[in-house]
Amino acid sequence: MHIYDWEPGIGDPTFIGWLTVAAYFIAAVLCAGNLLRARHADRRAYLFWVAFTVFMVALGINKQLDLQTLFTAVFKHFAKATGWYEDRRIFQAIFIAIIAFFGLAFAALAWVWTLRTLPRHRLALVGGIFLVCFIVIRAASFHHIDQILGKELVFFRINHVLELGGIACVALGALTARRGILAGEAPQTAPAPHNLKGSASGYPR
Questions:
Q1: Closest to 63 measured CA to CA, from 110, 27, 99
Q2: Nearest to 118 by CA among 131, 128, 104
Q3: Which terminus of the chain is more exposed, N or C, with fewer CB under 10 A?
């Protein structure tokens, strides 16, 4: 089944591709562990980790389905049909600038919001925002951006480093939040009262 220039299949059957898929699912498992622990303790935290679990699973599946390529193909067809394909570079640059601006603005607002409500969730939230911006910008298929992302750093391309870095932020954020949840679950035992003579029972020894 072909949809313009896209067809279903494995988008990145390389070792790095499958490593990235595994990283997405490991992060999803960490998020799922937090939602199970926060289910009865904190509704806001519970909903946060439900959303992030679904989000990371979806991105892991999309890594190999490569649905952003479908988006690019549909958008390319639309640009040709409406007659502004020749000026696509200008629109792509504007689109990337808008995504970058709103990504940074939303990250700043999210950082302030979580500082007051869910302070241990900030790293995961920023990592999630970064991944969304990264994937959307790649879907824009801006030639110069693709050239930069395709450059290699040792054994990894820059796009691999950025994507795995965003996943790592989410995973580390989930681990940080998990320590907070475990600390909140720890039983708090109040010290036994002592009388003036030091008896723990309250009665003279």
A1: 27
A2: 128
A3: N
* Cα 16 to Cα 162: distance, rounded to the nearest angstrom: 13
Q: What are the domain boundaries of the chain? A: 15-68+88-183
Q: Say if residues 134 and 161 touch (Cβ distance below 8 Å).
A: no
Q: What percent of the chain has pLDDT over 90?
A: 24
Amino acid symbol at 40 = H
Which are the contacts of 44, defined by CB distance < 8 A and separation ≥ 6? 117, 118
Q: What is the chain's Cα-based Rg?
A: 24
pLDDT at 199 over 50: no
Q: How far apart are CA 28 and CA 128, in angstroms?
A: 12
pLDDT for 15 beyond 50: yes
pTM of the model: 0.74
CB 52 within 8 A of CB 170: yes
Burial 128-157, CB ≥16 within 10 A → b, else e:
bbbbbbbbbbbbbbbeebeeebeeeeeeeb
Quickly list H helices, the chain: 15-38, 43-65, 67-82, 88-116, 122-139, 143-149, 158-185
pLDDT bucket at 179, cuts 50 / 70 / 90: confident
Task: Give the separation between CA 83 and CA 18, rounded to whole angstroms.
Answer: 39
- Say whether pLDDT at 163 is over 60: yes
pLDDT at 200: 45
Largest CA distance in the chain: 95
